Amino acid sequence: MPANRSTILRRGIAVVATLPLVTLAACGYGSESTADNAKEKVAAGSSKIDGLDSVRIGYFGNLTHGTALVARQQGYFQKQLGATKADYQIFNAGPSEIEALNSKSLDIGWIGPSPAINGYTKANGTNLRIIGGSASGGVKLVINPKKIKSLKDVKGRKIATPQLGNTQDVAFLNWVADQGWKVDANTGKGDVSVVRTDNKVTPDAYKSGAIDGAWVPEPTASKLVAAGGKVLLDEASLWPDKKFVITNIIVRQDFLKEHPKAVEAVLKASVEANKWINANSDEAKATANKRLEADSGKALPADVIDPAWKSIQFTDDPLASTLNTEAEHAVKAGLLEKPNLKGIYDLTLLNKVLKAEGASPVDDATLGAN
After folding, report:
1. pTM, whole model, 2 decimals?
2. Burial, 82: exposed, middle or buried (Cβ in 10 Å; 0-12, 13-18, 19+)?
3. Cβ–Cβ contacts within 10 Å for residue 358, how many?
4. What are the start-end ranges of the E strands in 105-243?
5. Beta strand pairing status for 213-217 and 139-143?
6. Do the Cβ atoms of 253 and 101 come closer than 8 Å?
């Protein structure tokens, strides 16, 4: 029933919003690295964009946010923003990033599709726009090969997802339903036990035997493989052309309206980063790992980052049709009432940047604001 779905969604948002962040910044939402990087410094003689002292940019310490990791590490954000300082907040929960955006302590952020959908619908379409794509893929079902030999063996097992109602949780519940199995989306109980576990805890939960596998993004999936797990299914195989949105770029609607030049500058940096990543994969991988090390204090080992990086496609295209499908999956699972996503996209500035680069425009699947 609709009331029950709303209750489940609110509970899901509440659960993930309480997940601990790496280090709390003054704003109370994200952490900020203090690592010095010469490429991030404001260039002497440059001018401010839109008269702004700073632009606050958010991202996760995940490889699926590799565009932001590379753009920061290479100094692309700061280069495009001139004398307007690029300030950063690092998140590990989508609802926390949405909360920061809603409170106006964040201007622009890299985020997964489900938090963007949930945030947009909860605010009745008044708080954010998706202004660009970032990444596709990088999500896998990894299992304990001693306990699970085939896809049918997943039935009756304990499988972790990162959060109730998050992008991977919705994808796994949809896959379970496609197998003809039943699971209560709220409790996670049924033909499969869905265990909502923070990605940072999942590898240890796997090693201890508390879970039999996990449907997770990179680099968690490759961490499980390094711990003896086996990839049973790559989510990309379930999508047309093996492409589906895993990371988008969002912006506050009021910030987009008041400071379009600053938003365009960030998009230029994103397009520049993706172009460099796709032309220099190995160097880009090392660059992203340096940023992860600076942000978290620990780089990923080669047996984790190498396979993880290969499974992610970096793209400026937000793959809007797949976002709409992911929303339908959340409705099917009972985690979301049928949303009105009209207006969630504004790709005007991105297509302007792409045109200047001689690249083809991207499509909003009729969900654009204009």
Report:
1. 0.87
2. middle
3. 6
4. 108-111, 128-137, 139-143, 158-161, 193-196, 213-217, 230-234
5. antiparallel
6. no
Residue carrying the six token digits 């992860």 = 292
Nearest CA to 37 out of 290, 261, 363 is that of 290
How do the pLDDT tens digits run along the chain, 370 residues long? Answer: 444 444 444 444 433 333 333 333 333 334 444 444 657 777 766 789 999 999 999 999 989 999 999 999 999 999 999 999 999 999 988 889 999 999 999 999 999 999 999 999 999 999 999 999 999 999 999 999 999 999 999 999 999 999 898 899 999 999 999 999 999 999 999 999 999 999 999 999 999 999 999 999 999 999 999 999 999 999 999 999 999 999 999 999 999 999 999 999 999 999 999 999 999 999 999 999 999 999 999 999 999 999 999 999 999 999 999 999 999 999 999 888 999 999 999 999 999 999 999 999 999 999 998 7
Angle between the N-to-C axes of helices 113-122 and 320-333, in degrees from 0 to 180, rounded to the nearest 10? 70
Question: In a 10 Å sphere around its CB, with 0-12 CB exposed, 13-18 middle and 19+ buried, how is residue 370 labelled?
Answer: exposed
Count helices and strands (H / E) in the chain: 14, 11
Using alpha carbons, list the distances in angstroms from residue 144 to 158, 192, 209, 219, 316: 11, 15, 9, 17, 35
The DSSP code sequence of 207-262 is HHTS-SEEEEETTHHHHHHHTT-EEEEEGGGGSGGG--EEEEEEEEHHHHHH-HHH
Residue 240 structure tokens: 């047309």
Crossing angle for the helix pair 94-102 and 113-122, to the nearest 10 degrees: 40
Name residue, tokens 């939960």. Answer: 205
Which residues does 213 contact at the CB level (< 8 Å), separation at least 6?
Answer: 141, 142, 143, 144, 147, 148, 154, 157, 158, 159, 160, 206, 224, 229, 232
**Amino acid in position 123:** A
